[in-house]
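go over my protein:
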Amino acid sequence: MHNEGMITSTATPTAVPQHPGQFIRDTILTPKGLSVLAAAKQVGVGRPAFSNFINGNAAATAEMASRLEVAFNVPAQKILDMQAAHDAAAAKIKGAPFAAKRYVVPLLTFKANDIEAWVDHNIFSRSRFAVFLRTLVNSTGTGISKIDFPGNDDAERPGWDGQLEIQNATPWIPQGTSGWEFGTNQEPKVKADGDFSKSVAAATKEVRDHTTFIFVTPRRWLGKQAWVEKKQSESLWKDVRAYDSSDLEQWLEQSIPAQAWLANEVRRPSKGVRSLDRCWDDWSQVSNPALVGSLFATAIDQAKRSITSLLSRPPERPIQIAADSVGEAVAFLSQLFGTRGGDELQGHRDRVLVFDEAGALPELAQGAKDFIAVATNPFVERELGPYALSMHCIVVCPRNAANITPDVVLEPLHSEALRTSLEEMGLERDEVDQYTIESGRSLTVLRRR
């Protein structure tokens, strides 16, 4: 690991509302010059208990709130509301305890053995593993201010294998700044030791004091806990964690998008649910050479501002995308929620699920509704009705089938834009001329040709 890409900042902590006991101390006891003993007698409780309360070391109970209302004319409900706000903010900063998990209706069940088998039978697993972890993080984390898990062609880039800054902790994601290293090697400890040493050498003490070091392996690691405890005892990082296939199995249970992604990756039937990665492969890989993302560059430039705005607000209705074919519209979404769409839209990518068959959506929506549902046919579109105001939804349809004014219409490309993309694909000039004419500049027709 080198200094390039090193995290140097930390997440801004959330302010905790004042404890009601401290509020009573600052607004009543101090101005009135009341001692703790005198105030305790006024309230009718013992001095130690009241001292703990006004110093923020004990919570306000319903009984204490009632006594304060009688003694100092402070509404009991105000005291209880202050306590609730204080507790909620404090818990958010501390992060959820490891045992606290969201209720998620599973799409598919994966075991630790399935994750190991995927690595064993996939020569590209090293570069794809980063995408898998990014999907897990993006689909289960909230308050993410920075995330960088380079995968595919960028997987060997110098620096951390993954970088993250997040405001809210989860059972698998620590609050604040974390640097991630991972490897698919048969011997996790060897890789973990090497990455740990290199990371320490590449980071200043100031950075390490604010960074949690995390090592992840898709294999079982029997000595994982002992390794973590030893590294924590060295006090070289803010904290040290390690996850193996067993941990990933449990994390995967919390992420429907990651379940769909892995199912598509290993070609397991996924109940008619696809990830955007799979959608792009299904659309682009039918030709030789493969179709390129720049075919949608003009459409993305025209649509990204309006789609970003719609997704930044509470949902009011499904977003509608119209194109010459459903496949073209879904391929457009895959590129829109990628690097071409900008950081904000790319941040949504790993939460998007494309539903090709009816039945799965109502079942999954019984649990967490933090995914974006894309309906590709009228049967799934009808299932969106009960959820249109509780989760963001997208409906894709052929242009001639749109029953309302679409939010985005994919028009035929300008000749120059189409020619540029065809040249990027490596086609000769005569072929470029031929396909430009024969397709009528429609991407759906181009794909068929």
